Amino acid sequence: MLALPIAGWAVSRSRVAAAQALSVKVRTHHVLTFVVSAQAATHDGQPVDRAAMDDLCRRAAAADPSTVVRVEVSKDADHDAAVGALTAAQTAGLPFELIRP
Questions:
Q1: 78: Cβ contacts below 8 Å, ≥ 6 apart
Q2: Model's pTM, two decimal places?
Q3: Per residue in 81-100, pLDDT tens?
Q4: Where do the domains of the chain lie?
């Protein structure tokens, strides 16, 4: 009578452990977004320069090292500002992605 629940636990134990490992692996990441246009680079609608981008990336990395930096670049974007945003992410050790239209 007791053998059936124990056998069921022994079989399902590895499946539960695999599901728990997967849930830890697929967790929600924070996203820090910079929008770069011909006029300026912005974060949350506010203009930012390279020093501000560096500061935001450092703070994001301290809070959550898995934060992803998303750089949205328009067709007429300022090249130096886009490179600055990507470099700020890389310097802070954060993963980044470049989004172009």
A1: 36, 37, 38, 39, 40, 41
A2: 0.70
A3: 999 999 999 999 999 999 99
A4: 28-99
